[in-house]
Design brief:
Strand content: 25-35%
Number of domains: 3
Order of helices and strands: EHEHEHHEEEHHEHHEEEEEEEEEE
Strand order of the largest sheet: 12-15-14-13-16-17
Oligomer: single chain
Radius of gyration: 22 Å
CATH superfamily of the largest domain: HUPs
Number of helices: 8
CATH architecture of the largest domain: 3-Layer(aba) Sandwich
Distance between the termini: 51 Å
CATH class of the largest domain: Alpha Beta
Number of strands: 17
CATH topology of the largest domain: Rossmann fold
Largest sheet: 6 strands, antiparallel, barrel
Structural class: alpha/beta
Length: 362
Amino acid sequence: MSLKHIVVGLSGGVDSAVAAHLLQSAGHKVDAIFMKNWEEDDDEQYCAASQDLQDAEKICEKLNISLRTVNFSSEYWDYVFEYFLAEHRAGRTPNPDILCNTEIKFKAFLEFATELGAEKIATGHYARCQNTQTYYQLMTGLDANKDQSYFLHGLNQAQLSKSLFPLGELDKAQVRQVAQELNLHVHNKKDSTGICFIGERKFSDFLKKYIHNNQGDIIDTEGNILGTHQGITFFTIGQRQGLGIGGIADANEQPWYVVDKRLDTNELVVAQGTDHPALFNKSLIVEKMHWIDAEYSGSIKHIQAKIRYRQSHQECDAIELEDGQWQLNFTHAQRAVTPGQYAVLYDREHCLGGGIISHRIN
């Protein structure tokens, strides 16, 4: 591989720091950019962006690479957050991290880095990109516990051709060891979780600032009224906490779970028991399907899918429907299929693409 000018998206965490070091050690010219993507009601109580920037500055000083900061808050609001709100208003549960990758990290950031003369960009994602000479394939990271191909499945060929994932062949323990050997102060920094603009605050309290909700009935699968919810938007399929319906007369002590959200009647449907049948579906419909390196049609047999990030690969078949929709039929029924989330398809280590779950099929 010829030496290149590479700009790394530096988050202030250990992963992107080690990614920058590995590229630098390979002899590439490496610069770094710190992206700020949220500033609405942003303060130290809720978002660690200021601390992350300080960490990024220390990392660059240690590695002797230049650091620029860029504010993509406007783009984030227009292309990610507005969608996030619209999906919640529609009663669905979106995943803004995937849109953040396609619209911000591998679009706005890529364009900005290219203007600076970068030939490639790099991030600390645990994934691999394989060039077959015909197209670029997105592959899972070798660390199954950290693989992030799920979040990258929306990337296209142009984006993948300009992207590097230096950590794809490593596991998290190796990355932390490299950072410790370099005496990087972030070698044991806790991984960031969740969405920065929500931070440590209560999710429902955050949404109330942007979405108006009406109270409605909480009912069981038989239609019995069990309580009152403060807005369907605040709940997701499979949710157990925060229902506020404990101590129901004549009910057993098994926990209650959300199994449906009926927008037309503003009813939240719940059922008791981790394995209640209403929590499971063998099929689902996916819309807005995106294929990474090949256009599929008809049906695809013996592939795998994930309907959430931390899930193991689930065996399924895919059948093309009208209007770009696909039906996924699973070998085993899936728990808590959630409209608005993404179903991502795989052929073992090869990530094929994915789309948005529109609805479940009993």
